[in-house]
Amino acid sequence: MREGSTTPWREWPDDGSADGEPLAGDLPGAQQLGLLRRLNVAAEAAGRRVPVAMADRVLAAGVSGRGRGELPLLGADDPERFGPRPVDPDTLPDDELLRVAAGLIADDVAATAGAPTPEPTLVARARAARRPWTKAFVVVGVQWRADSVRAGLAAAGRRQGGRRPTAYLLADDLATVLVHAWTARAFDQGGPTWHDFLRNSSSFGHLPPRADLPRMARSATHKYGADRVTVVLDPAALAAELGTARLQEPPRLGANAIDLVRRVGEPLGLLVDRAERPGLLRAALAPRLAGRGGAAPTVPARFGGWLSSMAERTRHDLEAAGYPVLGDLDRLLPGPLPAEPVAPVDAEVLALALGLLLDPVTTQQEADA
């Protein structure tokens, strides 16, 4: 396997004809061997070969996340009386291989910490200089989207702040807000799967805090004043009000890409400070995964009743509070839900992970240096 073999475990000849160099340490677990074979398959399909250093990293890797620990290899030795039963690495579900891959990618992301930030060009500094005559404002809302909008405005010389600012609450149809909220949580701390994220809130009949727009509006009211909160459902109208061509939206990540970030975020939390984790994931993974991972996740029909009632309640609460609105509050209401919902698929998530092992984020960092 270290030399690039793609032969399944059960097809491996037992006459010694395919033996490689003996390992110096203990035999790797089934998850590690299964992942390395899959990595070899992906490399071979691309006309490449897995570097020996990466192969050794895979074989020595731990198993992240909750669940079973390292599994012994079927037929490699007499089975232990206690502990997990030996398994064929080629029969392991993709989720088990992802537990190893996520830890390896987390190591690479952690290695990017402290990388020097390129000095902005003179043109960039001129564009980013705050115009003292611009309107005082702050942008609030789901962090995943609000951070990108703020960054784009700052790059155009319209940094938020100033005396008695207007707080603009970014809103959208509630299904989209939920996707942004789940994405923000994936980058912040890992967290639950897309299905569990929806189920945990719907079972209690409320919205996740990250998607609760009326709650965010009340928080902004307490901080900036009741007459200084505006709900934004028309991004073009906000761009015009702030004197810029358009708002910068966050990278488009598909369901599988978000799920990979979620999985990597958990072991990364053991390697770096909590406050550092979101920024590292945004800098290292978001650019590599932008536009990849399939379509954005959608809300399954079984949550349709909850979604509609939450959207109606959100619309009512914002309208009753009397906040000025850029756009139409009806945009909060979700459209028809797809018959076939989009959700992460472990096989597709693993394919993205294999790509990040073949071309680690640390390699890209070195190329940019």
Compile the SSE list and pairings.
Layout: H1 30-45, H2 52-60, H3 94-111, H4 122-128, E1 137-140, H5 143-155, E2 166-170, H6 174-189, H7 194-202, H8 213-224, E3 229-232, H9 235-241, H10 255-268, H11 277-284, H12 286-289, H13 304-321, E4 325-326, H14 346-358, H15 361-368
Parallel strand pairs: 1-2, 2-3, 3-4
Region (Disordered): 1-28
Can you describe what's shown?
The protein is mainly α and 369 residues long. The protein folds into 2 domains: 9-92, no CATH class; 127-359, no CATH class. The chain contains 15 helices and 4 strands. It has a 4-stranded parallel sheet. Helix 1 crosses helix 3 and helix 6 runs parallel beside helix 10. The longest helix has 18 residues, at 94-111. It is elongated, with a radius of gyration of 24 Å. Residues 1-28 are annotated as: Disordered.
Order of helices and strands: HHHHEHEHHHEHHHHHEHH
Largest sheet descriptor: 4 strands, parallel
Enumerate the spans where pLDDT stays under 50 for 5 or more consecutive residues: none
Please report which band the strand proportion falls in: under 5%, 5-15%, 15-25%, 25-35%, 35-45% or over 45%: under 5%
Count of domains: 2
- Share of helix among residues? 40-55%
> What's the overall average pLDDT, rounded?
88
* Shape, principal axes of CA atoms: elongated
Strand-pairing-aware structural class: mainly alpha
Strand order of the largest sheet: 1-2-3-4
Radius of gyration, CA atoms, in whole angstroms = 24 Å
Number of helix segments? 15
Distance between the termini: 32 Å
How many beta-strand segments? 4
